[in-house]
Amino acid sequence: MSMKAMVRQVDSVTVVDVSGRITLGEACKELREVIRGELGKGHKNLLLNLGDVTYIDSSGIGELVSAFTAVSNQGGQLKLLHLTKKVHDLLQITKLYTVFDVRDDEAEAISSFKAA
Amino acid sequence: MQPEASVIEVILESNLANVERAEAAARSVAAKMGFDEEREFHVEMAVHEAVINAIHHGNKENASKKVYIRFLVFADRLEIHVRDEGQGFDPATLPDPLASENILSDSGRGIFLVRKFMDEFRVEKSPAGGTDVIMVKHLTTRIQSNQGGTGREHEGNGASG
Questions:
Q1: In chain B, which residues have their Cβ closer than 8 Å to the Cβ of A96?
Q2: What is the pLDDT of residues A13-60, one digit of tens each?
Q3: CB contact under 8 A, B105 and A23
Q4: Which CATH fold topology does A4-115 show?
Q5: Which residues on A lie below 8 Å from B98 (Cβ)?
Q6: Residue B60's pLDDT is what?
């Protein structure tokens, strides 16, 4: 299954619902384009919903880091929502779990941007 | 004397679309050997990263070059060889992705994950040409002894995915 990224706006937050495989190649490229596209529109509060991500590899993890850096450099915030156990474990192993703001509840995640 | 192993071989063209075939083979072999779901995923992920490395960095995605994967099934362990037709790399020279200066790097975690997920890891020049990444996962958990490399390996660009 290839990757899909659907974008929706909730209040001031751009939620990107990602599903499928985030792996080296087209998937990483597409995710990068979606993130850069939203930043280009001035959308700097991004919430990546990874609940339907079935697989992520080292390149996919790198793409998340790249997105985080790009958003931060624009003065925005990128947060992660609904990590699967596999993604959670990979972020722990790579010591990135504490780099990202990880949320389990969408409404609470949306509110956290307002509070920031 | 080494006990005899059952051998399963998969040969792939250097196309990233083929990586899922390698993963499926790894998953199937690991499941049949009795690895639990988590350790089966570790084997699958390690094969994914090693095959990506072979296709992307080793064979430079040249479709005329092949990736040769051999699963050697022993009673107590699974040994996996992923051979490419590239120039080799020295895993000892790869940057530590956990170092503070690398933590926000967008690459360089592939071989790190292979080492984390497998009990043994080494890189050798293959007598048949190219580079052989050799990984072992024991059926029972062991302390990792996988920091090695032979020092005669490949990949001048130092990239590992």
A1: 103
A2: 999 999 999 999 999 999 999 999 999 999 999 999 999 999 999 999
A3: no
A4: Transcription Regulator spoIIAA (3.30.750)
A5: 94-95
A6: 95
Instruction: Please tell me the distance from the alpha carbon of residue A13 to that of residue A43, in angstroms, as a whole number.
Output: 8
Cβ–Cβ below 8 Å for A68 and B104:
yes
Residue A38 in contact with residue A46, Cβ under 8 Å?
yes
Does the residue B160 lie in any domain?
Answer: no
Among A86-90, A94-98, B29-33, B127-131, which stretch is predicted with the lowest mean pLDDT?
B127-131
E strand or H helix that includes residue A1: none
Which chain B residue shows the shortest CA-CA distance from A67? Answer: B106
How near does any CA of chain A get to the CA of B16, in Å?
7
Query: Hey, where are the domains in chain A?
Result: 4-115
Rounded to whole angstroms, the Cα distance separating A14 from A12 reads: 7
> Residue A66 is nearest to which of B16, B98, B106, comparing CB atoms?
B106
Q: Any idea how long chain A is?
A: 116
| pLDDT at residue B118, as a whole number | 98
Complex ipTM value: 0.91
